[in-house]
Design a protein that fits this description.
- By secondary structure, this protein is mainly α.
- The chain has a domain at about 25-85: Orthogonal Bundle (Helix Hairpins).
- The chain contains three helices and no strands.
- The chain has helices at about 20-25, 30-45, 50-80.
- Helix 2 runs antiparallel to helix 3 (about 50-80).
- The longest helix is centred in the C-terminal third of the chain and has 32 residues, at about 50-80.
- The termini are far apart.
- The model is unreliable at about 1-20 (pLDDT under 50).
Length: about 90
């Protein structure tokens, strides 16, 4: 059975100009979250060069934005599904 988060449509950017790069556009929330976890582990290990660390940091920031967009889309769907207060 498919998890509910996989049925969500692609999220809309939270703010103008915040569209995810093509690299992340097809990632599910779970895939982006797992990639972000990997980035954090690599940064915390300290084994990367400064240049590699900067590239990882930028990738992590982009992945975090992508995850936030998925979560914002999920929140919007939940809000739309709730009955209006009477």
């Amino acid at each position: 059975m498919t998890s509910p988060s996989r049925k969500l449509p692609s999220p809309k950017p939270v703010e103008e100009g915040a569209a995810p790069s093509d690299e992340f556009a097809q990632l599910t929330y779970e895939q982006a979250r797992d990639a972000l976890i990997d980035v954090v582990r690599r940064l915390e290990s300290g084994a990367e060069t400064l240049e590699e660390s900067l590239a990882l940091w930028e990738r992590g920031e982009a992945l975090a934005r992508h995850c936030e967009q998925w979560l914002a889309g999920a929140q919007a769907r939940l809000d739309a599904a709730r009955p209006a207060p009477e």
